[in-house]
Structure formats: C-alpha cells, structure tokens
Specification:
Distance between the termini: 55 Å
Strand content: 5-15%
CATH class of the largest domain: Alpha Beta
CATH topology of the largest domain: Rossmann fold
Strand order of the largest sheet: 2-1-3-6-7
Number of strands: 7
Length: 261
C-alpha cells in the first residue's frame, strides 16, 4: 500500500500538537516517542522523493538522559528541536499540496514577467514559443532546464511560488492504444509528464492562468476533460491569440516587439 499524503499530514499535525503541549507542560511524556515518530515520518516523505536534504534528528546521548523523575536540560532542548522541526516539515508538506496564495487582484495588476513553459519532444515548437516570449520581454521558466539539486517536479515548482502563469505545449509525441484494441488503431498522444503538469498547473494556478498550446495532427488525441482551458492551436498566427490572452490576464505585452510579424 502506498504512502498517503493525507495521513502524513494528520500524523505530523498530531506530532506537532502533542510535542508542543508536552514541552509547555514540563515534559511529562518520553521525548523518544516523538523522536521516533518524526524520523519515521521524514523517512516516508523522503521515500516519495521530497526534502531529501533534511536529516533525521539524533537521540540524546545516554549519559545526558534522565532516569529519575523530571527531565534533563538536554532532553528539554531535544523536545523543543523535535517540535520545531515537525512544525517546519508540516508546513513544507502542506505547501506541496496547496495552491499559492495569489492576490485576488492578480488579473487587475501587473504580473511578474516569469512564465512556466512545459513542453514535450517538439523542440521546434518549444524554441518558437520561448523566443516569442523573450521578444515580448517575458522570462520563460523551463523547470527541467533549471539548475537544482531537487529531482521532483512539484518541489521544483514550489521554488517559483511567485510565478502565476503557465503555457503547456502539447505535441503528438507518443502512440497509444487500449490493451484490447489493435495496434493499427493507435492514436498520437502528448507525453505523460506534459499531461500531468497541465493538470497540476490547472489545480495550482487556476484555469484562467494556464494556456494549452497544441500542434494539430491527424489522430492526435487531446483530452476534452479540461473544460475552460485556454486552448490555442499552434499554427500560422498563433502568437496573436497568445498575446491577446496574455493581455487579458494583465501582462504588459506589445505585439510590435515581434519584429518578424
């Protein structure tokens, strides 16, 4: 059975609440219970690929432990460390699952010039979009090209919480067909990571802040489940529609900057 984020959050909240209460009540429970719980939860989270830079909390040396009533200053300090580390970890996990707190006036004010760009194997399409954004004085953020030690796409995205818009490029990169169908019935589909990131950004930023740019091709299957998405076909004049949508979302862009129009 897989590790469930919901259960992790509940366990972390319980750990933070209990350890904080015991810390305030002069430590009437065994800190080792909290220590073991924190380290197990951290291990589960790192198994999922998150926060691998964090280290486990070490135990108080045997010589500094109390074997009579009360507690030592070392145990007291260790419980405070566990409480603080648990609270920090809880906030980090919640941030992974929560959308950024965007200003409600986002579409009524000047935005950051940074825009996420998600792409598949169509390098020509990617280069065309990137160069167009750059000519419009926008800064495309391509996560898999950003220097970072983190490997998980969601963790990378949280490093750019100030970026409020995404353009997802869907190109016919793979062939797919149901298991019970003939291979001759295969249809073109976008790469799985592109579809995943489209869904992630729709949930994180809102459909009004995501544009799906697609290259039309026979038998290219595009999901129709994403209602309300800003779909733009990648064909002659596609950049006019892009600029129009960006302006509607209050980006300060000027079509005259595209000298090749």
């Amino acid at each position: 059975m897989g590790i469930d984020f919901g259960s992790l959050i509940i366990d972390l909240e319980t750990l933070v609440s209990s350890s904080k209460e015991d810390f305030l009540k002069e430590f009437w429970s065994d800190y080792e219970t909290y220590l073991k719980t924190y380290n197990l939860l951290l291990k589960d989270i790192q198994t999922l690929g998150f926060f691998k830079e964090l280290t486990i909390i070490k135990q108080v040396p045997l010589s500094d432990q109390s074997f009579t009533s009360g507690f030592t200053k070392h145990e007291h300090a260790k419980l405070r460390e566990i409480t603080n580390a648990s609270n920090i970890l809880l906030q980090k996990v919640k941030l992974l699952l929560s959308p950024p707190k965007l200003d409600n006036r986002m579409n009524n004010q000047v935005r950051s010039n940074k825009i996420f760009v998600v792409h598949g194997h169509d390098n020509k399409m990617k280069l065309d979009v990137v160069q167009t954004l750059q000519k419009l004085d926008l800064d495309p953020i391509i996560l898999n090209e950003e220097p970072t030690k983190r490997l998980n796409i969601i963790e990378k995205i949280t490093d750019y919480a100030h970026v409020s818009f995404a353009i997802v490029l869907l190109s016919p990169d793979n062939l797919s067909y149901p298991e019970n169908k003939n291979p001759a019935e295969a249809k073109y589909v976008a790469r799985q990571n592109v579809i995943f990131e489209l869904g992630y950004f729709l949930g994180r930023l809102g459909k009004q802040n995501v544009i799906a740019l697609y290259r039309k091709k026979k038998d290219f299957e595009i999901s129709t489940e994403y209602t309300g998405v800003l779909w733009i076909e990648y064909k002659s004049g596609w950049y006019f529609k892009l600029i129009k949508e960006l302006q509607a979302c209050n980006f300060d862009v000027d079509a005259n900057k595209l000298g090749w129009l």
